[in-house]
Amino acid sequence: MADQESRLIAAAKIGNKEAFEKALRPHLPMLFAYSRAIVLDFHAAEDVVQETAQIAYRKLNFLIPEADFSGWLKAIARRQALAARRKLTKTSLVTEEIIERVYQDLRGELLFGKIP
Fold first, then answer.
1. CB 69: neighbour CB atoms within 10 A?
2. Contacts of 40 (CB under 8 A, 6+ apart)
3. What is this structure's pTM?
4. Angle at the Cα of 31 (from 26 to 37), degrees rounded to 5?
5. For residue 99, what pLDDT band results from cuts at 50, 70 and 90?
6. What's the CA gap between 76 and 51, in Å, rounded?
7. Residue 22 near residue 14 (C-beta atoms within 8 A)
8. DSSP 8-state symbol, 41
9. CA-based R_g, the chain, Å
10. Would you tell me how many other CB atoms lie within 10 Å of the CB of residue 114?
């Protein structure tokens, strides 16, 4: 299996997109599970896996032959997932703050009769 993966990666490095897809495909479930465990969001994890695949393809020439392809992919996914989690956290904090403000404003208006 490792020999086949090495041959696929070598072919992908010279531009064979199908070879890259074949090398990547067995790792997708692991990448998704790993990403979802970090971001805690199904759709964000899907995005992370997609970004990971794109980055890996673009940077494939940086993968040294002795490196573990799975570990390399996982490292890329970790960076992307952590960035996605930071983004989701900021977004949810802002969203929670906005919802709370609107609730407080509406509650005040209802209590003091400003809303009919």
1. 19
2. 85
3. 0.76
4. 145
5. low
6. 9
7. no
8. -
9. 22
10. 10
